[in-house]
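haha ok so turns out i had the wrong file open the whole time. this is the CORRECT one, sorry everyone. sequence first:
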Amino acid sequence: MHPKGRANPAFGVFRSVLLSVTMQPLKVGEFVNYARWVAGMPSPLRPQVLDVEGVTVVAFGSEFERIDEALIPTIAEVFAQLTAQKRRPLVVDLSQTKFFGSSFIEQLFRLWNRAKDEKGHGFALAGINDYCQEILSVTNLKQLWPMYKTRAQAVESVKSSAPPA
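then structure:
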């Protein structure tokens, strides 16, 4: 907002540019993330990291309906912190996510590469919608990463494939 209560004209121009780049109207939260990203500031949004029956679950909530470039630096940081710790089975829950791009796929690939055991076990995706499954299918990653409809199914699967502690 402009100090005198009028809308700041720069806001409208910036939002128009983003609209033309993304080809979709942006929600307020998405706009704030883009503005922070353009300014070189990290996103305040972070996925939730949970311990479920000895399995690390990275849960992307409703604020991650659309995972775009503005969120990637923060997600990369969270993923790096997870893999710096002791290796344990890992589930990425994307049940609230409707869209992600190639930058997020790259981050998932890096996470999988660091998190899997020597047999390729210990990593799974949960709650992937049809559109995102199609993206992973086209890239042949659907064959590489186990995918489950629910978080509980994914946790049970990686738990049973994990070596005893």
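Strands lie at 48-52, 55-59, 66-67, 90-93, 99-100, 123-126, 147-148.
again sry for the mixup
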